[in-house]
Amino acid sequence: MIKQADGITIETLTTPVANKLHHAHCSTIVAFPDGELVAAWYWAVKEANIDEEIYISRKLPGHESWERPAAWGLKSRIFFDGNPTLWIAPDTGILHIFYNAGWGWSFVFAKHKTSTDRGRTWKAKRNVYPLVSRGVKNPPILTSKGTYVLPCYVEFKNLRGVFFISADKGVTWKQSKFVDLRPDLVPAGYEAKKGRQVEQPSVIERRDGTIFALFRNDGQPMRKMLESTSADGGFTWTPATNGVLPNPAGGFHMLRLASGNVAIIYNHAPSPGNDRKWRNPLSVALSEDDGTTWSYRRNLLEWHQDEEGNAEQETFEYPTMAQGPDGRLHATWSRSHVVSLNGVAQRVTDIQYTSFPEAWVKERPFFDDAWESS
């Protein structure tokens, strides 16, 4: 049984195609100044499939529905393309897309293209990093010093956070030092991996000019997001420590809002006292102090087992957000569920979308439990 929050409408942007398109995942969304929305994701019969390609859909200003998704037509010849992240550079208005091209998640190149016509055509791709095994998941930020800071990660052998900094509007990038878990926090049994369990960071610039990052953990016993800060524009970072928000080894996205507050869309799971790593519920929280504490929270979606225990588990994964010119927040995520394709029950992932104002999130103070009481 799915419990949907009051006050929001949810749209499904994808329809599975038997034996071709089952897994639509890792979505990204941007909002242009006139209100046009552009979303993208990767789509294939399964994850890390050679046929995996980026698809794009848009919702034009004044239109009630999204355009039908279409493959962007720029698929790498020998790689799959995955984990797209769109970003409108605030200083130029140019649309950027970063994505992974590779043969497996631990063996990818981080690619970068730009578009001056809102993603209808793209300029030739560049490698963010010349060698293999630098992955992307979340968009960069523009700092107060005019640099771009792109959060990335290494998934080759061990998981480590890493960042790329550009001082020339994304033409060239310099790599930061790696971010590992603070040595004294390495859980028992993880010593062989040297605490390298941090990945897929999301970043903001704090009011004092430092860069603050939250990282996905890789299922460590503490089940918390990990956090780190940089005082030199993203080149060096403090060792990652336990954050305050839970994390079921899943992706999330943190965003500075026009109000000055910070929003995060994530899975508030597992709940205290419950070690299940379900990516459920789907939550949005707000911070008024640069991510130090979280003041408000709403659950967009919750999946609950029915009394008979027959329903197939659903999860809501890899959420992301953008803020529109009117301040409204636009969110997309992957819904994993079971459908019948040609008469055969199969688990698929679809991309879903909703929007809501910041004030809607503020209707509920932050709460620690996984489930939002009715």
Number of domains: 1
CATH class descriptor name? Mainly Beta
Task: Note the beta-strand portion.
Answer: 35-45%
| Spatial order of strands in the largest sheet | 1-23-22-21-20
Apparent shape: globular
> What is the number of beta strands?
26
Count of helical stretches: 1
CATH topology: Neuraminidase
Overall pLDDT level: 93
Over all CA atoms, what is the radius of gyration?
A: 19 Å
Secondary-structure-based class equals mainly beta
* Helical proportion, percent range: under 10%
Structure characterization notes:
The structure is a single chain. This protein is an all-beta fold and 374 residues long. It has a single domain (2-361), classed as Neuraminidase. It has one helix at 358-361, and strands at residues 2-4, 11-12, 23-31, 37-44, 53-59, 70-71, 80-88, 95-104, 107-115, 126-127, 135-136, 141-142, 148-154, 160-166, 174-175, 198-205, 211-217, 224-230, 241-246, 253-256, 262-267, 282-287, 296-303, 315-323, 329-341, 344-356. The strands form six sheets. The chain has a five-stranded antiparallel sheet. Strand 3 (23-31) and strand 4 form a beta hairpin. The relative contact order is 0.15. The mean pLDDT is 93.
